[in-house]
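Entry 14. Structure prediction run on the chain below.
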Amino acid sequence: MSNIEKNEFEEFFLSETAVLEVETPTGKPLLRNGQPVRIHVYAPGSSEYEKAKAALDSAATRKVLAALGKNGKKEESDDKQADVNFLVSVTKEIENFPYPNGSRGVYSETRLIYINKQVQAFLGDMANFFGGAQQD
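Output returned:
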C-alpha cells in the first residue's frame, strides 16, 4: 500500500468558488455606477452545489410524479421556481448589483434572464473552477 496523501492531489481539485463577470446581452461588461457586476458562485462538487443540485433533482422528480396524476400536465412556473431556487443556492454573493430581494430578486426577474443564462453556462464549464480561473 502506498503512502500517498490526498493533499498531494490538491492541484487537480476544482476550487470551491469562482467569479463570473456578468455581461450585457450585447457582450459588454455589465457595469453599475461604473463598477463591474460580478457573481460569486459555488463550484460543482462543492457541498453547496451538491445540496442545490439534489434539491433541483428532487423537485424535478416530484413534478414528474405529480404530472403523472394530472394527465402529463406540468406547471411551467414550478420549473422556473426550481431553477431560481437552484441559482440562489449556488450563489455566494452578487457584487455591485443590490437588486431588491438580492439574488432571488435577480434570478426571478424575467427581464434579467440573460444573467440566469450566464450563470448556468458558467457553472457548466469546469474550466471556470480549475487552475488559473478567477476565484474568490
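The longest strand covers residues 17-21.
Filed with the rest of this week's runs.
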